[in-house]
């Protein structure tokens, strides 16, 4: 399987330009944004995880922002009690608290360890994380969040639509060229759906992304914790306790009695985060902060896809996952 290295000739990889605003390159069986390939190569070449590091992994639009907030608030609850008025999550978007491994290593003058946070995030598929991270003896642990592909697809299309102008400008800047026609024009939902079904989406195919982490979580449950967005919505408290335990900082009985779990769930809820000033008006590199908080429900695909589209995607996913013991 091809994997990016420092001397990889990116221009030789298969190119997909129909998923604006990003040009995608096929690498190791996945369609990755061209702009992240140097960062991936840098991760492989120089990122050495510390045993205590936690890596939050996800396919885009699957609950990454929420997981970042929950993990950060949980790991740092001693220094930053969730009710504190100056809690970092009240000043910073969750993406400002927890950085993306491949993006931040790809940028100059960034701390590749994500500061003192001890937690980083990635959209990379498991097979492209690199041996330093996946090796049993690296100690570093991985939390994956999985979401129904139909909701991830719809969320992604709406997010791109909202942030098209900013992302296209960055893509053009990275490619050292004015935005091309392809990167300026958002395709229709139907066109994006065809590409998604073909696995040609940002970090797609989604189902292979999910199953890579699923299989590793089965093989090595101490290394990879597999969470489901839909289950987290249904029972955030149990899932947060599971997350804390996995990260090595379980809630004590005293903390639970004092309401620490409930407070973190509340601090990281969609409504609380969405209403913070920083998330109403701020922006990240690629997107306005308010775009990260939309409906936050399971099954919103029904408002955007026909049942024929849904049945088709379900069939594709089912066929592709045959032989694995995974179901959405
Ligand atoms: P919808 O677009 O379906 O509403 P990501 O963080 O990976 O980009 O995923 C974005 C999705 O997670 C969006 O889904 C967004 O609304 C939802 N989301 C963001 N913050 C959330 C939170 N605190 N709780 C639940 N869902 C959240």
TrEMBL record:
The protein's name in its UniProt record: Sulfotransferase
Annotated source species: Brachypodium distachyon (Purple false brome)
Domain of life of the native organism: Eukaryota
Residue span, Sulfotransferase domain: 51-324
Record keywords: Transferase
Lineage: Eukaryota, Viridiplantae, Streptophyta, Embryophyta, Tracheophyta
Gene Ontology biological-process annotations: sulfation
Annotated EC: 2.8.2.-
GO molecular function terms noted in the UniProt entry: sulfotransferase activity
Keyword match Transferase: yes
Keyword DNA damage: no
SUPFAM superfamilies the UniProt entry points to: P-loop containing nucleoside triphosphate hydrolases
Record GO cellular component, one term: cytoplasm
Enzymatic class: transferase
UniProt record similarity statement: Belongs to the sulfotransferase 1 family.
């Amino acid at each position: 399987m091809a994997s990016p290295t420092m001397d990889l000739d990116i221009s030789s990889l298969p190119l997909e330009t129909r998923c604006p605003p990003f040009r995608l390159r096929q690498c190791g069986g996945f369609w990755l944004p061209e702009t992240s390939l140097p960062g991936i190569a840098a991760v492989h070449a120089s990122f050495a995880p510390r045993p205590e590091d936690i890596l939050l992994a996800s396919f885009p639009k699957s609950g990454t922002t929420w997981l970042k907030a929950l993990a950060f608030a949980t790991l740092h609850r001693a220094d930053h009690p969730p009710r504190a008025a100056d809690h970092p999550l009240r000043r910073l978007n969750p993406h400002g608290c927890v950085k993306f491994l491949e993006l931040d290593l790809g940028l100059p003058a960034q701390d590749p360890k994500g500061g003192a946070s001890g937690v980083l995030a990635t959209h990379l598929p498991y097979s492209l994380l690199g041996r330093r991270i996946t090796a049993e003896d690296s100690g570093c642990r991985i939390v994956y969040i999985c979401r129904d592909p139909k909701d991830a697809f719809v969320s992604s299309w709406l997010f791109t639509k909202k942030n098209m102008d900013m992302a296209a400008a960055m893509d053009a800047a990275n490619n050292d060229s004015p935005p091309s026609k392809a990167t300026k024009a958002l395709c229709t939902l139907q066109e994006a759906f065809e590409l998604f079904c073909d696995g040609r989406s940002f970090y797609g195919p989604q189902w292979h992304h999910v199953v890579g982490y699923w299989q590793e979580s089965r093989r090595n449950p101490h290394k990879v914790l597999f969470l489901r967005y839909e289950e987290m919505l249904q029972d955030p408290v149990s899932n947060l306790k599971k997350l804390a335990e996995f990260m090595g900082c379980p809630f004590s009985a005293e903390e639970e009695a004092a309401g620490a779990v409930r407070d973190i769930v509340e601090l990281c809820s969609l409504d609380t985060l969405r209403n913070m000033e920083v998330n109403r008006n701020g922006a990240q590199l690629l997107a306005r902060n308010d775009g990260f908080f939309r409906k936050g429900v399971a099954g919103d695909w029904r408002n955007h896809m026909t049942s024929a589209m849904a049945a088709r995607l379900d069939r594709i996913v089912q066929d592709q996952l045959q032989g694995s013991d995974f179901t959405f």
